[in-house]
Design a protein that fits this description.
This protein is an alpha+beta fold. 16% of the residues lie in helices and 32% in strands. It has three helices and twelve strands. The strands form three sheets. A five-stranded mixed β-sheet has the order 1-12-11-6-7, with no helix packed on it. Strands 2, 3, 4, 9 and 10 form a five-stranded antiparallel β-sheet that branches. A hairpin with a 5-residue loop joins strand 6 and strand 7. It is globular.
Length: 187
Amino acid sequence: MIARRTRILLCGVSLALPLAACGHKQAHPHAGDSEGVYVDAGPVTYQVQLSRELSPYNVEDQQYLRGLPSGTLGPRPDEEWFAIFLWAKNQSRSPATTASSFDIVDTQGTKYVPLAINPTVNPFAWTPQSLKPLGTEPSPDSVAAFGPTQGSELLFKINTSAYSNRPLTLEIRGPAQQLWGSITLDL
């Protein structure tokens, strides 16, 4: 009789354990070793949808190069446009603000910062914002979400020597330039 009760109790516990984990948020790492990895950076989860060089002669890329500040010079012969298309989600139960500070760092310590893009001219531009619980950037009904990259754009001008100094890492920074998270780029 005791053995039977013990087996019933063990069966009940073995069935209850998987259910006990339901509803528990699985934390993501703060550093991702490739694009596509979800990274918790500050109060928000980020994912690089895509990163690539842009050509002003490519019809698709021309839309990503709109909205630059007046007087912005094109890349020099040893530079190129480089875009990161980023997705973010607030997985908490309260509003959270997305990061406004990013940089790319190569293995030599060279840092590249994104250029300001006017979001009224370029609907793909990353704009820091407060996300409601479960809210995303880009918002599901936006041009950026429906576009081929499905992410909001960070635009950089990088030196072509960066290809020799790989891997490149996107750093996501919080207030006072505190490093919140990082993602290794597939470059």
